[in-house]
Design goal:
326 residues, binds adenosine-5'-triphosphate, five-stranded mixed β-sheet, Nucleotidyltransferase, domain 5, binds fe (ii) ion, alpha/beta
């Protein structure tokens, strides 16, 4: 079975093609980068995706040496994400499914991050730490779905890092540059905010900026921000491990690329006899392959939909998806 997957939930328009063994036949991406110092305007990102869609599809077919008639299913990320962007992928997917008479398979973007992580690392049943620009969730499978054990109460961790970086005048790409600057810093006091199983970063950003205005060094602010925020995520992960008894942790999402986060997780997990898996950087960012692969898992368990049911799902939650394949 061959699946063509379409990702367009935010900045990345990705089209991937995979077979049922997880072999990658195509991986094409086009990523919208906002002007320096500016955030993303959903409408503008969607326009960018519309302009690139035909080209990305053509490249994906060329690199796979397949024709659309050879594809068995069309998988599409219907959410969660930015509505104008979601509509681009959904429209393309509906068109392809209709024109070529293929089943249409809805994929949840967050689940796809988990599934590509499991595919690439061979983790079986991990506590998943999903930290990116758009999400911060500690997730574990239980009784038919991926349950969210803890999450951010306000902004996602990657978003907090990007916001703080912009304010501190750090150049993009913010994540890796923030990481580098932080490695030269010393500790200053910043608030540690874990409430129950949830974390909160907005007060931490505010406090870090206050310290900056008071004249503290950028290196020290980045270092301390990292120490506090990663410790918060690590604490919640440890409690999810204790609660579920699972023996694996899987880091997915863009912030998983952080050396320091990986290190903290390793230390915590070693003490508990838990194995840490880290999604390779290439597969931590948004892409069409993860949608195509999750589409195969979903389709094999009967999760295809009619065109009339393929509305976008802006706030589609991780735990709303029925998982029959674990
Ligand atoms: P999603 O749509 O799943 O929320 P995303 O759009 O945020 O994903 P990703 O590539 O998964 O895209 O994540 C990007 C985030 O990862 C950015 O916020 C960036 O700051 C962060 N990031 C990338 N590299 C690092 C790093 N080395 N250290 C810390 N954060 C990083
Ligand atoms: Fe993503």
């Amino acid at each position: 079975m061959i699946s063509l997957g379409i990702e367009s939930t935010a900045h990345t328009l990705g089209i991937g093609i995979v077979d049922e063994n997880g072999k990658i036949l195509a991986d094409e991406r086009s990523i919208y980068v906002p002007p320096v110092g500016k955030g993303m305007v959903p409408r503008e990102v969607a326009d960018y995706h519309i302009k690139n869609a035909q080209d990305i599809l053509k490249k994906a077919l060329e690199s796979s040496r397949l024709k659309l008639k050879d594809v068995d299913i069309i998988s599409v990320a219907l959410g969660p994400g930015l509505p104008p962007c979601l509509r681009v992928g959904a429209t393309l997917a509906r068109f392809l499914a209709l024109k070529f008479g293929k089943p249409l398979v809805p994929v949840n973007h967050c689940i796809a991050h988990i599934e590509i992580g499991r595919l690439m690392t061979k983790a079986k049943d991990p506590v998943v730490v999903y930290t990116s620009g758009g999400n911060t969730q500690i997730i574990a499978y239980a009784e038919g779905s991926h349950r969210v054990f803890g999450e951010t109460e306000d902004i996602p961790l990657g978003n907090a890092i990007d916001m703080l970086s912009r304010e501190l005048g750090i150049q993009p790409p913010y994540g890796p540059n923030f990481d580098k600057i932080a490695s030269k810093g010393k500790w200053i006091d910043l608030p540690y905010v874990v409430k129950g199983m949830d974390v909160s970063f907005s007060g931490l950003v505010t406090e870090a900026l206050k310290k900056y205005k008071e004249g503290k060094r950028i290196e020290d602010i980045c270092y301390s921000f990292q120490e506090v925020s990663y410790a918060m995520v690590t604490e919640v992960t440890e409690r999810a491990l204790a609660h579920t008894g699972k023996k694996e942790v899987l880091l997915v999402g863009g912030v998983a690329a952080s050396q320091r986060l990986q290190e903290m997780m390793q230390i915590m997990c070693k003490e508990r006899g838990v194995k840490v898996f880290i999604v390779p950087r290439k597969w931590s960012g948004d892409n069409g392959v993860m949608i195509a692969w999750t589409g195969i898992l979903a389709y094999k368990h009967g999760q295809s939909i009619k065109i009339g049911e393929s509305h976008i799902r802006q706030k589609w939650r991780t735990d709303e998806v029925k998982i029959d394949w674990l």
